[in-house]
Amino acid sequence: MADIVVVGAGVVGLGTATLLARDGHHVTVLERDPSSPPSSPEDAWSDWNRRGVNQFRLPHYLLARYRLIVDAELPEMAAAIEAAGGLRHNPLLEIPEEIRGKERPEDKDLTVVTGRRPVVESAVASAAAATPGLTIRRGVGVEGLMTGHPTRPGIPHAMGVRTESGEEIAADLVVDMTGRRSALPRWLEEAGARSPVEELEDSGFMYYGRHFRSSDGSRPFGLGPALMPLGTISSLTLPGDNGTWSVTLVASAKDKALYGLRDVGRWEKLVRSLPLVGHWLDAEAIDDGVLTITKIEDRIRSFVVDGQPVATGVVAVADAWACSNPSLGRGVSVGMVHGLLLRDRLRDLGLDDAYNFAAGFHRSTAEEVQPWFDWTRAGDRHRLAQIEAGMRGEDYRPDDPDWETEQALGSASSKDPDCLRVSIRAAMVVDPLERSLSSPGLREKIASLGGEWRQEPVPAPAREELVALANA
């Protein structure tokens, strides 16, 4: 078994570290933020400071793929989230039967366990800390990689990490899970490695969100999908733990006409104007103001260049490898798919040949995880272009039949139980949409039921009224 250093103690970092420790590896997790997770959900929400996570108190939701993994591999984590008040529910089965049809055995796949980010991470941390073979050290920042004798000429080999205090921690494998702010390219450059190939672009969205709590532990009934495109904005309504939920408006970061939504009163007026969303405000707000975030990047890095790993003994997992638009909620689920893949490649490839492991992990990542990122990035680009066309008063008509099919599927989902399940299973990172669309006759059904999606009314005020509400 190997000595492994995992850098980063977020939800996915701790989940991956626990998977590796349960496989018999000796795992040390290093986390730069010094504060330990509080023991109560309310203290986690109000007092825990995680400066390394810029979206720590923004709306958060865990998709069904995450729950499937933790129920199967890490049931103690699912139990800890629920014990902290996390919500276990099935969004498909909450849709009226006349729309979704009779319950099917496979519908159980769509159950989620979720909560606000600080509450979930605190619960996950408590479960991870109790895992034999796993040590979590907080307040330890990593400055760079230790290197040893290369396994291939010209390719640096990591032998551990050097901390900001100068401590050297040896490891057979370094796993970077420091998320969107990963400094791994700098560490590699300083170690003499080739730079990874990076594709980087601003996702272009801006988020305006607030959290609420009911007085009796209940939550609002969803009158539409959690993420709804509404002309030049989208609404995002997410249930959380302990009778809490969040409401977010998503707009283009270029849409200065909506910057007034930073004001609570204007934000509330606009949300109240949305007939399928306004009732989500009928509760106590638990934020002081409107939480905003922008400059969220879509980024992917390849650590194999010209067919050669840039380094051995170190890998990037989850958001340190690729990150995307958080409003779709796929980050944690895709990250855990990646973490599980790392566990499995360690099982079948081992680390005796570090070059073979690095190359094999890269191939598996490209084949099994990257399609989820590519799909998300393509959707981001289309949705942003659609919003910005609407800002100009134009209709968005790209020459992309796959995007047209997805929009038609959204319309057909309210009219056909099969289409509904295909849509939700893809959104929940359970089944790739491309695979589902290969079912005989499905594309034809989608075109028949949803092909006129552009003619359907948008349940939101027109652009001019939205702008007026944001500036009233």
What does this molecule look like?
The protein is α+β, with helices and mostly antiparallel strands. It has 3 domains: 1-200 and 296-394, FAD/NAD(P)-binding domain, CATH 3.50.50.60; 205-293, Alpha-Beta Plaits (2-Layer Sandwich); 397-458, no CATH class. 36% of the residues lie in helices and 22% in strands. It is built from 16 helices and 21 strands. It has helices at 11-22, 41-47, 64-73, 75-83, 97-100, 117-129, 184-190, 264-272, 331-349, 354-368, 370-391, 401-412, 417-427, 433-436, 442-450, 463-470; strands at 3-7, 26-31, 87-89, 112-114, 134-138, 142-152, 155-163, 168-170, 173-176, 197-202, 205-213, 227-230, 233-239, 244-252, 284-285, 291-293, 297-302, 304-305, 308-309, 314-316, 322-323. The strands form 6 sheets. Strands 11, 12, 13, 14, 15 and 16 form a 6-stranded antiparallel beta sheet that branches. Strands 5-2-1-9-20 form a 5-stranded parallel beta sheet, covered by helices on one side. β7 and β8 form a beta hairpin. α1 runs parallel beside α9 (331-349) and α4 packs across α6 (117-129). The radius of gyration is 23 Å and the shape is globular. The chain starts with a strand and ends with a helix.
